[in-house]
Amino acid sequence: MTLPPAAYPSAYIPVDHYSAVHLAAQAARSVAQRCGLQGALPDQAAVIASELGSNLAKHAVDGALYVQELPLGRGVEIIAADRGPGMPELQRCLADGYTTTETLGAGMGGVNRIATSFTVRTREPGGTVSCARLTSPEDAGTARRAVGAVCVPAEREEVSGDACAATETEQGLTAIVVDGLGHGPEASEAAQIALRTFARASDQPLPGLLTTVHRALRRSRGAAVGLLRLHAGRAQYCGIGNVRCMTLTQRDIQHRLTGQPGVAGLEIPRPLVRDIPWEPHFTALLHTDGIDHRWAYSPDPFLVRLPAPLLATALVHGHRRSRDDATVLAANLHQRLS
């Protein structure tokens, strides 16, 4: 059985030693092959991961790579995050051929040249987040969509009980975030059932879609489920359990919602849709309780200004509860990545 891309958790690779660079390159090549990239593209994905990993190993504190399939379209995404010291000469670092030591792709400028899309944000001393996406030429437009998602399992778990997916429908961009009850294989099974159901029924109105997912989960452990639909000028949320939904501007958080009480697959009330006031510059965000919700009490200005894919990664990297599965999905319909 073929799983949707988001059923595979992100490959999380802490870069605390140069040996991690080789692991990152292997992971990037494997993900690129899994999502169907052909020819030299898997090797190019490995070069990108090697360059970003080498940069973390040489310069960063608490650096890690997140390697995964794109949430929309066909391609691989390699994201680097760290806690400092930041890059004081970002534009110089992005120049092709600039590198402090000789590497295969000639530093971050090489990544900028090879990648379909490459987006970087940095500050001193708070650190850097960068996202490189690689697709075939016909999918290049999708690589610039500002939709991002990261899903990592709890420490010492090989599978994640969380999962997420996004798709384009006639009704708009529709996304799901699932948190299977507990963690481990049974929670993962519930999450994957929800994703497969979502893939078949994502064009339904949100209450019907949530009910369909609930029925599909009846023989599983059950899950919290959050559904988001973004239209032009309108956003809707429908959820069960503790999947949080927020909208952000580049200054602050505008709206905060959680799901109705219940567990999808066990018992739920009649699903309610909540309309969210929406402006073109808003970013919508869903996350599971594997992310410490206190980040939103006084959000870091650097964080809320990040493009959606970098925002998702920065939240996981900086606010994850390591003993739980953690997932963040972020989307902005009007942003375009470089």
UniProtKB/TrEMBL annotation:
Pfam families: SpoIIE
Transmembrane segments: none
Molecular function as annotated in GO: protein serine/threonine kinase activity
SUPFAM superfamilies on file: ATPase domain of HSP90 chaperone/DNA topoisomerase II/histidine kinase, PP2C-like
Enzyme class: transferase
Source species, domain of life: Bacteria
E.C. no: 2.7.11.1
Keyword Amino-acid biosynthesis assigned: no
Keyword vocabulary terms for this entry: Kinase, Transferase
Presence of the UniProt keyword Kinase in the record: yes
Residue span, PPM-type phosphatase domain: 145-333
Protein name: Serine/threonine-protein kinase RsbT
Species for this entry: Streptomyces rimosus subsp. rimosus
Top-level taxonomy: Bacteria, Bacillati, Actinomycetota, Actinomycetes, Kitasatosporales
